[in-house]
Design a protein that fits this description.
The protein is α/β, with parallel strands linked by helices and 185 residues long. Helices cover 50% and strands 12% of the residues. It contains nine helices and seven strands; from the N terminus they run H-E-H-H-E-H-E-E-H-E-H-E-H-E-H-H. The chain has a four-stranded parallel beta sheet with strand order 4-5-6-7, covered by helices on one side. A three-stranded parallel beta sheet has the order 1-2-3. Helix 4 (57-65) links the parallel strand 2 and strand 3. Helix 6 packs parallel to helix 7 and helix 7 (137-144) packs across helix 9 (167-184). It is globular, with a radius of gyration of 17 Å.
Length: 185
């Protein structure tokens, strides 16, 4: 299960660990039990994309009580007033969905997304990390100009699905290409 994997991972690293998943499995597991498990494993943050700002106050309170960041999402279509509300309610950072569309698909427009993120910067006091549509080091460089960090999810999952085995060296090489491109830029 995920908690066993995270326990094994936490024994090997001090890097921040952020979970992302839907709310129904958390409810089925038990919200209080979920936070207890996350806290005992040193989980740093949780992203629940299907839990809205309006419906998530008790979840965010549970996260705060467990010293876990409850990270909210914003997008290019988020109006300025809502962006400010999301910023007040999020903790850790604000996850900016850089593009409209489906994650993992080939989409263009990251340059425009970097511009919308720069506009959002004026409304947001938390760090902004951008994700969705970032699958190459060049994509990361393009979007990085407007945000505080990039999130690469689907491309990493695809890498692992396409050729199982030797995960650690492949993930290390994959992420190092992004790190190098960002450092050189």
């Amino acid at each position: 299960n995920i908690f066993g994997l995270l326990d094994h991972l936490r024994d090997r690293t001090e890097i921040p660990l952020v979970l992302m998943g839907y709310y129904n499995p958390i409810i089925a597991f038990g919200v209080e039990k979920f936070f207890e498990q996350c806290s005992s494993l040193g989980i740093d943050g949780i992203i629940v994309p299907d839990l809205t700002l309006e419906e998530g106050e008790s979840f965010r309170a549970g996260a705060r009580g467990s010293d876990i960041a409850a990270i909210l999402l914003a997008s290019p279509t988020t109006p300025p007033e809502r962006m400010a509300l999301l910023d007040r309610a999020t903790s850790g950072f604000l996850y900016y969905i850089s593009l409209t569309g489906v994650t993992g698909s080939t989409i263009h427009g990251l340059g425009e997304a970097a511009q919308t993120i720069r506009r959002a910067r004026g409304l947001v006091r938390h760090p902004i990390l951008a994700g969705f549509g970032i699958s190459t080091p060049a994509d990361a460089v393009t979007i990085a100009g407007g945000c505080d960090g990039v999130i690469i999810g689907s491309a990493l999952i695809k890498l692992l699905e396409d050729s199982p085995g030797s995960e650690v060296p492949r993930v290390t090489s994959f992420t190092q290409r992004f790190r190098t491109a960002l450092d050189e830029h």
